[in-house]
Structure formats: structure tokens, C-alpha cells
Amino acid sequence: MSMRTLDRNKTLFGIFVELPTPAAIEIAGATGWDFVVIDCEHAPIAAASLPDYLRAAEAASIRAIVRIPSNSVEWIQAALDSGAAGIQIPQISSLEAARQALEMVRFHPIGKRGLNPFVRAARYASEPTTQFMERSNREVALILQLESAEAVKSVDEIVKLQGIDAIFLGPYDLSQSLGRPGEVNHSEVLDAGERVLRAAASAGLAPAVFVNTSEACAAWRQRGARWISYSTDSFLLAASMRKLRNSLSE
């Protein structure tokens, strides 16, 4: 399912998958989330596991983005060849880094992505190669994470690149970069984040953000966020279990 064809002004809600099981993706799909972000940056999810995670997403009719650990060709190839609907690249802090990501994600004539027509994304060569390349360029979403003071300074240049679909604000790393570690509600963090989201929206890109509370969700929606990743499966499971356990003792 393509994320590139979605209305970027429509609010979508997703969840980060940190638990190393495809069942978490099926549950997210069954409970009505719009997308999942399979977190290979901070969770113990290996590249070799991605095909099974993506099969679970297709079975559950939910769009699956893969967040890779770094802006590296090896991880980009692994995620895209496995059939991700989108790829999310962390720690983009400059125009040069954004260009590098774009070149590695898109096929000719937009970029220089390595071509292998025998992978899962190409339906194991059952799809004509040129059709596979065109479909990938047309359907696979590219989300760049901006989460540093340097990135905020470069955002107006980054959003001008053709071939990007969303700019994702990482409040926690941004708070560290601004000297306010963990203070995601500090005015400096909020102001810098709002600048990032405004720049994305003005360029026709989806403004995206991570939140961990309903209050933060409402606040960032007011600041223009449209693709909202609400917490992680592990946190939500723990919170639900804790609430239930406490209620049993009342």
C-alpha cells in the first residue's frame, strides 16, 4: 500500500514497533492504526527479520515504514528490497545528508539506488524490471528525521529537494541538541520543532512527529503535525498492563 499517494494534509496515526515480533504489527492493523514504523534504530530488529514483518503488515492491511539505524546504503537496500512501504532515516542534519539519502532511495532518473530485480520488493522478478523501478519511485515514501539544531538551520534547504514525502521531527534528540535533554515541552524545543513542521508543510511535505501522550498529540496537531507516531508498542503494552494491575488492587 502506497504512502506517497496519501493526502499529506490528512492526519494519520501510527505506532512504533519495538517488540521483536510480527504479531505486534498484526495487532496494530487489527486495532485501526494507519501505519507502523518498524524501529531498527533502537529496537532489536534485524534486517533479516524485515520480510516477515512486512508480510505481517500486508496481511493486516497496514502500511509499514522501516526506520533504519543510519543513513547507510546497506540498511536502505535491506529495507527497500524487503518491500517496505516507506523508509525513515534518522539524524539528517544537512542538505548534503538529505541528498545522499534521496539518491540511495530512488532509482534512476531521480537517484542511484542499487538495482536487483530478484528481491521480494520486485516480486522475485515476476514483475518487469522497469515496472518495478517506476512503481518503487512512485509508491515508496521517504521520510527524513530532523532532530538537531543543525537540522533546524538546514530545514528550508532540505524541504526543497524533490522526492521527499515527509519531514519527521524527533523531539527527544532535538531536546538534547538544544541543551534541554528530555525536556520535550520546553519552549525552545517547541519553537524549533514548529519551525521544522512549518517548513515541511510549506513545501507540500507531510509534517510528522513522535509523541508519547494525548496532550502532546493535541499540541503538535495544533502546530501542524499530520503524520503522528504515537509512542511504541512496548510502552503502550506496559501502560495498559500497569493500569489494569493497579485497578485490581483498588
Can you offer a commentary on this structure?
- The chain is of the alpha/beta class and 250 residues long.
- The protein has one domain (12-248): TIM Barrel.
- The chain contains ten helices and eight strands.
- The chain has helices spanning 23-30, 50-59, 73-82, 95-105, 129-139, 149-158, 171-177, 187-202, 214-222, 233-248, and strands at residues 12-17, 35-39, 63-67, 86-89, 141-146, 166-169, 206-211, 227-232.
- It has an eight-stranded parallel barrel with strand order 1-2-3-4-5-6-7-8, surrounded by eight helices.
- Strand 3, helix 3 (73-82) and strand 4 form a beta-alpha-beta unit.
- It is globular, with a radius of gyration of 18 Å.
Radius of gyration, in angstroms, nearest whole number: 18 Å
> Strand sequence of the main sheet, in spatial order?
1-2-3-4-5-6-7-8
Kindly report the average pLDDT value.
95
CATH architecture: Alpha-Beta Barrel
Q: Report, as a whole number of angstroms, the end-to-end distance.
A: 45 Å
CATH fold-level label: TIM Barrel
Shape: globular
Q: Considering DSSP H and I runs of 4 or more, what fraction of the residues is helical?
A: 40-55%
Low-confidence stretches: none
Number of spatially distinct domains: 1
Number of helical regions: 10
CATH superfamily: Phosphoenolpyruvate-binding domains
CATH secondary-structure class:
Alpha Beta
Series of secondary-structure elements, N-terminal to C-terminal: EHEHEHEHHEHEHHEHEH
Structural class: alpha/beta
- What's the number of extended β-strand segments? 8
Largest sheet: 8 strands, parallel, barrel
Tell me the fraction of residues in β-strands, as a range.
15-25%
